Amino acid sequence: xxxxxxxxxxxxxxxxxxxxxxxxxxxxxxxxxxxxxxxxxxxxxxxxxxxxxxxxxxxxxxxxxxxxxxxxxxxxxxxxxxxxxxxxxxxxxxxxxxxxxxxxxxxxxxxxxxxxxxxxxxxxxxxxxxxxxxxxxxxxxxxxxxxxxxxxxxxxxxxxxxxxxxxxxxxxxxxxxxxxxxxxxxxxxxxxxxxxxxxxxxxxxxxxxxxxxxxxxxxxxxxxxxxxxxxxxxxxxxxxxxxxxxxxxxxxxxxxxxxxxxxxxxxxxxxxxxxxxxxxxxxxxxxxxxxxxxxxxxxxxxxxxxxxxxxxxxxxxxxxxxxxxxxxxxxxxxxxxxxxxxxxxxxxxxxxxxxxxxxxxxxxxxxxxxxxxxxxxxxxxxxxxxxx
Length: 388
Fold this sequence. Notes:
With about 400 residues, this protein is an all-alpha fold. It has helices spanning about 45-50, 50-60, 65-80, 85-90, 100-115, 125-145, 160-170, 175-190, 195-205, 210-225, 230-240, 250-255, 275-290, 295-310, 320-330, 340-360, and strands at about 25-30, 35-40, 40. It folds into two domains: about 40-230 and about 335-360, Citrate Synthase, domain 1, CATH 1.10.580.10; about 230-330, CATH 1.10.230.10.
């Protein structure tokens, strides 16, 4: 056996870091200045003045809707909130201790069997699939949450907002309007973030011309990992493990000494504090002022202060996951549902990239740098015993 030096095709970048995989006009990030824009509109403006459904429309169709068009969009989503009884029957078969992201991925993939693909370039098909997924994903998340407790799912309420309806379906209690507004803002913040891991996965699947349900199911599977959307669950687990403000310093020093990652800190793009974390921190403060203090917030503040002192010179600051869990917990969302919230919001961004990919599609087929052996002779099975 011999090792052959192979010619290198281009420069190998682990994780494809910094290598453009597509051209897009959906969102923009400046990681050095902490800027995030959707279709050119700064995220701070959208959160202050817009709504999540308005943001969905902007991302998918490229422009802000008129009041009349937004109302039509809202009504079409309301019409498509309910899920078929066969989907509910499928959820009944899921194990009670299964992770909600696995349940959601299965449900979204299953939707495609009920709504078979027609013409990829048919505007009506794209619109129907988009409103159907935006409408049904929250219903499926809430249904699994109720049914794993042995309860019937809560039917959607047409008189509630998109955000308010989801909070209602979690426990059949109408949410405080302020809480619903805060949750709506959280969805805006998570709706889109250029070509991250889950969006890239969606693009690869879309390039095969599979249907949008499979496209989103593949993205959901990627989002669930602890290095992507699943990090927000790990942040709350970390804060619970720390337990008190006094334990922050020894916890942090021990983790840094072992060169372990501090969940909720650092980002592949941002070298300053994540602009979404800035907004989420403000939302957390408003929630606590209105509905009561949370000791985990004190722990988080002290952890961020000390971690920033030690890590800022390396460009490591709090990211979106650091404060999102605190907000969701205060809103009454179970910890293992945190990443499904991320998915509910990111449906808009994934659909926008799916639509953009279809407009000028080319199958993704990257190359590799081969590092294995060459010209190895086949060894008959009778001669392999001596090698063990």
